Amino acid sequence: VIVSSVQRHARHSFFWQFVFHTYTTAFTLVNGNGTPKAEEYSLQQKQLLLGLGAISYSACVGALPLAFMNRYTLKNSLMQLVVRKLLPAPLLGLTSAFTVAMVRSPEFDNGIEVMDRNGNIVGVSKKAGEKAVMETALSRAVLFGTTFFLPEVLMYCLQRARFVKSPRALGPVRMFVIMSVLAGMLPVSFSMFPQCGEIKRADLEPEILSSTEETEFFYNRGI
């Protein structure tokens, strides 16, 4: 996150965002819901291909503003503000959510297990899978979008207040601010939605409802 935020060249930005999204994609694969079993090689292959495609696409999207600016030599202050300060946060948030949705797509294609209040599995629901993936994608977007946006606001305020007087100190201060925001946003992101998600009876498929009289159901959301 820190290295990606300080890049000024499209090629370097692509490389570091590729590394960043590779890590987050691997984390997503390991910490997703385990219901869709990889009993056949085709499922593993599909997830790897989707993951690689999502990583490449996200890295390209993240580097595109810098490539556009360098290609057309847009050096005015407004373009600098938009490309280097305003665009990175929403782009990183959207691409982080995109990689989650792509890598965990088997969960809403095949469904995930839902349980009753006592922990008994009552069926496999695609709607619960979709809800789990979307909640995780949203929490990931908030985590990294805020981590890119809030430090820029804080650094602007510090510079306006002349709190940091030495230009050499800007780099270490920026790094400290980014790490502090990321550390603070991690528990916020993980607690946005409960790990054991809840889905109402009316939101489930009829074939599951026909086998039980329970009104509330639960599922493992993943991280």
Mean pLDDT equals: 86
Distance between the termini: 18 Å
Principal-axis shape equals: elongated
Q: State the share of residues found in helices, binned by percent.
A: 55-70%
Characterize the largest beta sheet: strand count, sense, and whether it forms a barrel. Answer: 2 strands, antiparallel
> How large, in whole angstroms, is the Cα Rg?
21 Å
Give me the count of strands: 4
Number of helices: 9
Q: Which sequence of strands runs across the widest sheet?
A: 1-2
Number of domains: 1
Name the poorly predicted regions: none
Please identify the structural class as seen in this structure: mainly alpha
Strand content: 5-15%
Q: Helix and strand succession?
A: HHHHHHEEHHEHE
GO molecular function: monoatomic ion transmembrane transporter activity
Subcellular location: Mitochondrion membrane
Family: Belongs to the sideroflexin family.
Protein name: SFXN4 protein
